[in-house]
Amino acid sequence: MSRRPLIAANWKMHGTLESVQAYLETLVRRVPVAGPEVVLCPPFTLLPAAVMIASGSEVAIGAQNCHWEDKGAFTGEVAPTMLADLGIHWVIVGHSERRQYFGESDQTAAARAQAAQRAGLEVIFCLGETLEQREAGETMAVLERQSAVLAGLDPSHLAIAYEPVWAIGTGRTATTMQAQEAHAALRRRLAGLFGTEAAAALRILYGGSVKPDNAAVQLAQPDVDGALVGGASLDLEGFCAIIHAAPGGRRGAEE
Ligand code: 13P
Question: Which residues' Cβ are closer than 6 Å to ligand 1?
């Protein structure tokens, strides 16, 4: 049983055709062989170009959201089957910005994740507490509630991203102790949902102001298996530095 580190870039609503081409053409050459798994999640409009450039390389492409139905009258939505049809391998689901601005709930996030897995996609499922919740001592209860809906998912096509909302885009990253504590609690929770063996194989990424200068210490924590990187991933050099900060090989509880 081992966990290969996973480093994912979430470009959010940033990027142009020109920028994704230049970025990816260099990134595919700079990703270390036998290093961490690397995923780039640009906006929907850039996905076809990204898939074409990354084809045959070590970089996988992911979307930032998908709908919970395969087709239908849902103006403005994108079905997971459409992403799979395009050659997309990953999708981010339940990001706190979706929860905060677009009415995403635990239930809709779970439905999207289930539909994504039915379409053959790998899911990065995001969760994390707000500052008010942390200060009220509710962090573990929030993580427990948010992770309850994972029960309906296939753990072998799933990664979890712990993204404390107060650390996203604020420059205020969680301390390594806060991250490790939350990740270890989540892994215990996942063991309850999926069994110890599946939980030991599941990757739990940290997200929230990951930068080249703090990535190595976060990624060295025993239960931090990768990073979901926002702002710092827009800069190719910064993202490459974060990739190189990840432990190269595989590691895990039962190596
Ligand atoms: P930042 O790295 O910009 O804090 O964003 C984190 C995030 O939300 C990744 O999904």
Answer: 10, 95, 163, 168-169, 207-210, 228-232
The DSSP secondary-structure symbol of 14 reads -
Instruction: Write the pLDDT tens digit of every residue in 71-113.
Output: 999 999 999 999 999 999 999 999 999 999 999 999 999 999 9
Place of tokens 């989540």: 186
Dist. CA 218–CA 164, nearest whole Å? 14
Q: Which atom of ligand 1 is nearest to the CA of 208?
A: 4
- Spatial distance between the Cα atoms of 201 and 1, rounded to a whole number of angstroms: 6
Contact, 38 vs 243, CB < 8 A?
yes
Residue ranges of domains in the chain, CATH in brackets: 6-245 (3.20.20.70)
- Taking the C-alpha atoms of residue 100 and residue 12, their distance in angstroms, rounded to an integer, is 14
- What is the sign of the dihedral through the CA atoms of 201, 50, 248 and 64? negative
| Given the residues 37, 67, 95, 129, the one annotated as active site | 95
Catalytic residue among 97, 104, 122, 163: 163
3 state SS of 93: strand
Both structure tokens of 194: 């999926």
| Annotation marks residue 183 as catalytic | no
For the chain, the maximum distance between any two Cα atoms, rounded to a whole number of angstroms, is 48
CB 73 within 8 A of CB 79: no
**Global pTM value:** 0.96
- Per-residue pLDDT of 131-143, as tens digits, reads 999 999 999 999 9
